[in-house]
Design brief:
The protein is of the alpha/beta class. The protein contains twelve helices and 20 strands. The strands form five sheets. An eight-stranded mixed beta sheet has the order 3-6-2-1-9-11-12-10, sandwiched between helices. Strands 13-18-20-19 form a four-stranded antiparallel beta sheet. Helix 6 packs parallel to helix 8. The two termini are about 30 Å apart. It binds adenosine-5'-diphosphate (ADP), aspartic acid and magnesium ion (MG).
Length: about 400
């Protein structure tokens, strides 16, 4: 008998039949005697639809009200799933984030979980009830509803698994595991049976939407093993585990494509200390998530700094850059939203060289121009034009023979 945390994503609870399917799967575990805490996302594309609806009423809605609105999606799912379980004879009780008391900070739309009160859940588990918890939402100390960032139900599940010291944390989704790249983009992608936190975190940050990156961070911090699997079959999925459990340290475990970033280049910055610090501190204060940064120096002691930011923060980034240039007294800038970031990730890179060369060669063979490069110990990312992003992804995937491997 174990305590199992399961999370079902939007597609898995996409309509009433699918909710019934999920209930049947839960019943199977319940009948085996397990204690179950189930986290659910909003049905299908509900969250996107709610966002669209809000924007029709007010193009710049207050973040507080947006969170009140978006949290309703998950509230619908928990109630329907509890009803479905009740109907097939499984005692269940639903909880919103606030009812559990998933306490977060005050950053609406990207709140961080600070504490989870497990009292009510434990009480209900003792009474042999399945606890169904709304993903993606919490509450701040003043009882304002908060949300954890898009895809944040994964984080709710992993954080609950950590807080409850669960034996298993299963993330049910619409693919049967983590693949070498998005199987919906590259048909020859292969399922990875086991991957370490460090690689998974990097893949998630760089665009592998199958897991929310902060959920992987929390899993790594509290040693929660995540099992990513499909809610549509019983195939074993992918285990996300500590590095010492991985036998084979491959050079490239997976590749990713990100198309929601823009590049900004700030030109003619005088080559003197403090200016880069000034620019990036301004961006940090506005909570802008800067990803790649590349600086090049011209002959006349003038620098160009190029960096990428999420497309949806381009407006505010533009204002900050304009203010920076104005105070500096000269300079100019240029924005390109027409970019894609393609990355290769693997812990084997720590001890082996040659990955960059092979990756660039694969792009050269396809005549794809590289606009920016950034590397870390376990990843290499390049910026290319958006229209060749998918071609670049496939070229790199094939160059490292990820279409052939069985991890
Ligand atoms: P859920 O609603 O269940 O949370 P998501 O849409 O958030 O589902 O995540 C699953 C999707 O992630 C898949 O349908 C797939 O297209 C995408 N994905 C991106 N990269 C990968 C990858 N490396 N492996 C598996 N799926 C991936
Ligand atoms: N419903 C939220 C979203 O669409 C959270 C989630 O699905 O994990 O982002
Ligand atoms: Mg998701």
């Amino acid at each position: 008998m174990s305590l199992i945390v399961q999370k079902y994503g939007g597609t898995s609870v996409g309509d009433t039949d699918r909710i019934k399917n999920v209930a049947n799967r839960i019943k199977m575990y319940y009948d085996q005697g397990h204690d179950l805490v189930v986290v659910v996302s909003a049905m299908g594309h509900t969250t996107d639809q709610l966002i669209e609806m809000a924007k029709k009423i007010n193009p710049h809605p207050k973040a507080r009200e947006m969170d009140v609105l978006l949290s309703t999606g998950e509230q619908v799912s928990i109630a329907l799933l509890a009803m479905a379980l009740d109907y097939i004879g499984v005692p269940a009780i639903s909880f919103t984030g606030a009812q559990v008391r998933i306490l977060t900070d005050k950053k609406h739309s990207m709140a961080r979980i600070q504490e989870i009160d497990t009292t009510r859940i434990i009480e209900q588990l003792k009474q042999k009830k399945v606890c169904i918890v709304a993903g993606f939402q919490g509450v701040d100390e003043d009882f304002n509803i908060t949300t954890l960032g898009r895809g944040g139900s994964d984080l709710t599940a992993v954080a609950l698994a950590a807080a409850l010291n669960a034996d298993e944390c299963e993330i049910y989704t619409d693919v049967d595991g983590v693949y070498t790249t998005d199987p919906n983009k590259v048909q020859s992608a292969k399922k990875i049976s086991i991957i370490c936190y460090e690689e998974m975190l990097e893949l998630a940050r760089l665009g592998a939407g199958v897991l929310h990156s902060r959920s992987v961070e929390v899993a790594s911090k509290y040693n929660v093993v995540i099992h990513v699997r499909s809610s549509f079959n019983n195939n074993p999925g992918t285990l996300v585990v500590p590095e010492d459990k991985i036998m084979e340290k491959v050079l490239v475990r997976g590749v990713t494509l990100k198309t929601d970033e823009a590049r900004i280049s700030v030109m003619d910055i005088p080559d003197r200390p403090g200016l880069a610090a000034d620019l990036f501190n301004r961006l940090a204060r506005a909570d802008i998530n800067v990803d790649m940064i590349v600086q090049s120096t011209g002959k006349d002691q003038k620098n160009t700094i190029s960096f990428t930011v999420p497309v949806d923060s381009i407006h505010i980034t533009k204002e900050i850059v304009e203010a920076f240039i104005k105070e500096m007294g000269n300079g100019s800038y240029d924005i390109d939203e027409n970019i894609a970031i393609v990355s290769a990730v693997g812990i084997g890179m720590k001890s082996h060289s040659g990955v960059a060369g092979k990756m660039f060669e694969a792009l050269a063979k396809e005549n794809i121009n590289i606009e920016m490069i950034s590397t870390s110990e376990i990843k290499i990312s390049v910026v290319v034009k958006k229209d060749v992003g998918k071609k670049a992804l496939e070229a790199i995937h094939n160059a490292f023979e990820l279409d052939k491997v069985q991890f």
